[in-house]
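pls ignore typos typing on phone
S-adenosylmethionine + seq
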Amino acid sequence: MKIEVLRIGTRLVRDDRVTTHVTLVSRAFGASKIYMYDANPEIKETISKVNKMWGSDFKVEIIENWKDIIKLKKKESFKIVHLTMYGENIDTVQDEIRKEEKILIIVGAEKVPREAYDMADYNIAIGNQPHSEISALAILLDRILQGQQLQKKYSDSQREIIPTKKGKNVITKNASSSD
Ligand code: SAM
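k done
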């Protein structure tokens, strides 16, 4: 399944750290691209460094108008999945979403305009309590991909972690080192 993410809402400028974390979760948990506006352009640089070191060609696009992205993605046959605590519980719709071929996941910041709810094909709640866009996105991606994203390895990475009970074991190219 092709998965992309769109971050919307007001006061995004003051929310750089959360936007960075939403981006890291998108990349690590199986999405291929994130769209955002009013974001610090340094996020692009941060993610490009992460891609270089740990692999993948995850993309960050700074956009002007979020509604145009939704319209474009609808034309490209993406289904729009909006994460909101007011939506249908993920337990009841996850099987349906897993059957989709392409989805654009909308995650909000402080205030999400009403149009996002109307433009969405699915308004999905990760439980009906308020929490965070970072946790909501991580849980949604896990429910959709059923853990497969946690086994993902990238052949183009400069480094690879060898899981270990204690300490760190990281392979850098052909050399193995512990620190
Ligand atoms: N009441 C706010 C609203 O929905 O406008 C909550 C904002 S919350 C800090 C930021 C984002 O986290 C929301 O826009 C939504 O994408 C996500 N989120 C928070 N709780 C959620 C939940 N229970 N289910 C799904 N998404 C959630």
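The longest helix spans residues 16-28. The CA atoms of residues 30 and 140 lie 11 Å apart. more later
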